[in-house]
Design a protein that fits this description.
Layout: H1 2-30, E1 31-36, E2 44-47, E3 51-59, E4 62-70, E5 80-88, E6 96-106, E7 119-125, E8 128-135, E9 141-146, E10 154-162, E11 172-183
Antiparallel strand pairs: 1-11, 2-5, 3-4, 4-11, 5-10, 6-9, 6-11, 7-8, 7-10
Length: 185
Amino acid sequence: MFSKNIFICSWFVFAGIILFNQELVAAEKKEKILYDFCTNINQAKCENTADTSVTWKRCSGKMKESIFQHPPIDVGKGPAKLTYSGIELPLPEKGEKLFLKLNIGMADARWGKTEADGVCFIIKINDKEVFSKKYRKQKWCEQKIDLKDFAGQKVDITFMTDALKNSDYDWALWGKPRIVSEGKK
């Protein structure tokens, strides 16, 4: 009986690895990464932040390469900003689309007795707000922003986190932010 259970467990682990690998291959076939914000953080201008860095952090127990962006401790100073200037967006080929893809989330922590209210995640392209979401969950939330209005242009992209009412545990994460083309491969 014991060896039968090991065999069944081993089979499920093996099947899970195959399915996981198939999902990775399918994801790779769908998108081509044109710009990786984590890799290019040294080209960005960082303003008004308690801390901004590239790191591997857990959110809901799942680790991703991320940009950690803590808004200022003094909430009256406005949002933290990270601006990437002069990014050239190509015109997509026939059957392709451009997107800014990322996850947002709050880094795992034991909040205890606190009034942590999360942050407002904001993205601006050439000073036009294209994304805004108040969020306080320690769980990844996938986002996909269509860049069709900016295709073929040189753009400035700003990632901002606003502390809202307080900055308690405002451990904001931009998970794997990247510009991709999707469609034909």
